TrEMBL record, chain A:
PROSITE patterns: ADF_H. This is Cofilin. Pfam families: Cofilin_ADF. One of its GO terms (biological process) is actin filament depolymerization. One of its GO terms (cellular component) is nuclear matrix. It comes from Penicillium alfredii. Keywords: Actin-binding. Belongs to the actin-binding proteins ADF family.
UniProtKB/TrEMBL annotation, chain B:
GO terms for cellular component: nucleus. Pfam families: Actin. It comes from Penicillium alfredii. It is found in: Nucleus. This is Actin-related protein 4. Keywords: Activator, Chromatin regulator, DNA damage, DNA repair, Nucleus, Transcription, Transcription regulation.
Amino acid sequence: MSLASGVSIDDQCITEFNNFRMSHGKTKFIIYKISDNKKNVVVDEVGHDQDYEVFRTRLEAAADSNGKPAPRYAVYDVEYDLGGGEGKRSKIIFISWVPSDTPTLWSMIYASTREVLKNALNIATSIHADDKSDIEWKAVLAEASGGKAGK
Amino acid sequence: MNPSNPPQAAEYGGDEVSAIVLDPGYSTTRAGFAGEDAPKSLVPTYYGKYNADGQEKLIFGDDVFVTPRPALSVHNPVGKDGIVEDWDMAEKVWEYSFTSRLTGAKPGNPFQNGLNDISNDELPTEMEVESDEKPLADSPLLMTEPGWNPAKAREKTIEIAMEKWGTPAFYLARSGVLAAFASGKASALVVDIGASNISITPVHDGMILKRGVQHSPLGGDYISSQIRALFKSNSPQPITITPHYLISSKTAVEAGQAPQAKYKTFPAEKAPDASYRSLLEERTLSEFKECVVQVWPGPNKLSATGPTGVSNEETARTWPGRPFEFPDGYNQVFGVDRFRVVESLFDVKAAIPDPDSPFPAPTSSQTIPELIKGALSGVDVDIRPHLLANVVVTGASSLLYGFTDRLNHELMQLFPGPRVRISAPGNTAERRFGSWIGGSILASLGTFHQMWISKKEYEEHGPNIVEKRCK
């Protein structure tokens, strides 16, 4: 067991994630957050919009109760074309979003809960983002496709 | 209210534990209540030893600096590599760090402390006395450790916490992981510039990658030794550091002029040991590092030639110098020399030679760029770009002016392909106490209770449980 916050994963996080997997591309993303009482990870939003920019805007707009930018976790269904007639692929990517001006308290809680959520959802591919450039489509596509698409 | 009382549970969001967080370093030991922003107790890890009335006496905390007692000698229970050497004394110093300002002294025997005196002769028939109440009987304890702390030392630590201090719950956290988490990152390359060591700790998915951990002795104390070497060959005249306790009065002198001070002298039988003087000189050197010393910001080494054909040293020479006044009144402006004393952290050839230094001349594998190369070559090739994009800088000596600029240039030169990004808290306290603050937040979370090793578990499994639970 590695060092972790002990913050628990709400059952609904897993249920929504399974629905997301079964939706065959209808659901594009889920955004998760840690509840204000710092006890569990809960679903913040489930999104169906096919445009990546919609997701990115939602993630960047995440704010705490005082309206300040706040961290989030997210899963996104990345679809990409391998080119050369190899066809389309899709992969779910896990994103931790901790904007660099996040207060230390929340940085600490999000970082020390990340692996627990990622493991509970059983996702291998992940990126960590603290700057807006980290969640540009190019960066997400490159990570999800292992560098094969979007060159 | 007694100021040493922990804050009420309600003060941090209804979480009930008021744990103690102990972050022991080579130069200082940091202790405080979980949930607070900074450690309330900051004590030197050094302690003093002297004889009085034929008995050996010990001095802990800042008191060690105060009185130059006859034959007072200064010691450190922690070895130069950051690992404890003298466990008995480490226990005493650490215990002092929390009993002096946090938990208070042990309660006296209730039969003798006067609080239970009964006016008539009638004594209660039975009275249970816990005669040796332990200092942490009510407080869970989270401690930090370097990434290269060996298993034996980890077991010894939990043994002291459980058996000597009586803590009901314990956790031992790697300081590199805490520093990474405090920056919001579960994967990071942690560059920690401490007093006795500089270390590079790769952290991936919240775990340290042991094979990649690198450390070398080129920390703050080594920089002090380089400053001493510089002072010996200083012009217009060599500089001797005379600590305040040896000066009775001084007169202002012009820059570069010999000091005009009246000195205190101690006859041999009344003089403190040389280690005492050296500890006090170190205080002046710390001030010198904060006010004068500067890292050549790069690009390239100080000895290299810049793009216009002018050497970097020449460029640095044209920048305004920085003045410094020593305790004896001697003062001068330091020019390019202020860069030279730290250059060898990046360029081993720049080390100022000093045959009398306790530090052997550094080897090329001990510099920061080489340690980082070593750390990365010890980890899987796929995660190297992730680590380079998440470099976390911590440790008090990383506050040297220009340090992160130089580190950034060195990294970009070493690894031109992947993106390099450094995050270093701008806040001085967060840089000095990064690991303590990280531990303070975790240990204050109500949900952290499942991570603690309880006394019962310790009694059932023995000290080895720390290896299984605190990975």
